[in-house]
Amino acid sequence: MNFSGIKYKVLSKKIAGSVKRNSSSSLQVNNTIKTVGILVKENSKFDFEGLKRLQKQIPIGSKNFSVLTYKIQNETYNEFRGAFFYEKHVSLTGKIKSKEVSDFLNQEFDMLIDYTAADTIFAKFLTAISKAKFKVGYFTEDENLYDLIINVPIDNTKEFNNELIKYLKILNKIT
């Protein structure tokens, strides 16, 4: 029996609840970035070298960056050390079944960068339930997911990162 329709509805409700709860919290502009969570989707087009350059531009040290990779297939290769998320890690009731993924989402990062463009219900769900204090992502129809939206082409990680650094400096989140 296929329960994907039920899971989709449950996740949609959880996303709406998380977005509503998060939109009522105030954005603290002058808090500097000390920890960064990064959400990427398994994709051969993703620019991991650009992510390495970003780590150098945000002067907090690479050990303060954590990566969660949304995997489509069961393979264990990841250029960055970090947790893997598979759709099977979400129960029918919207609970995360993986301790590693749950730990990532419950960590109160100073900033979460969502490189997935929230292109699936699962990517939206991960972003919405993350406990990160400041969420950044691409422009999507679900603009309430993020505190900072960067409107650049989805496959242009370099331009996204350049704009991100520019706005983080304007907001006094990095020096």
What does this structure look like?
With 175 residues, the chain is α/β, with parallel strands linked by helices. It has one domain: Rossmann fold (3-Layer(aba) Sandwich), CATH 3.40.50. It is built from 5 helices and 6 strands, in the order αβαββαβαββα. The chain has helices at 4-23, 48-57, 99-106, 121-129, 157-170; strands at 36-41, 65-70, 82-85, 111-114, 135-138, 148-150. Strand 1, helix 2 (48-57) and strand 2 form a beta-alpha-beta unit. The chain is globular. It starts with a helix and ends in a 5-residue tail after the last helix.
Tell me the layout of helices and strands.
Blueprint: H1 4-23, E1 36-41, H2 48-57, E2 65-70, E3 82-85, H3 99-106, E4 111-114, H4 121-129, E5 135-138, E6 148-150, H5 157-170
Parallel strand pairs: 1-2, 1-4, 2-3, 4-5, 5-6
Helix pairs in contact: 1-4, 2-5
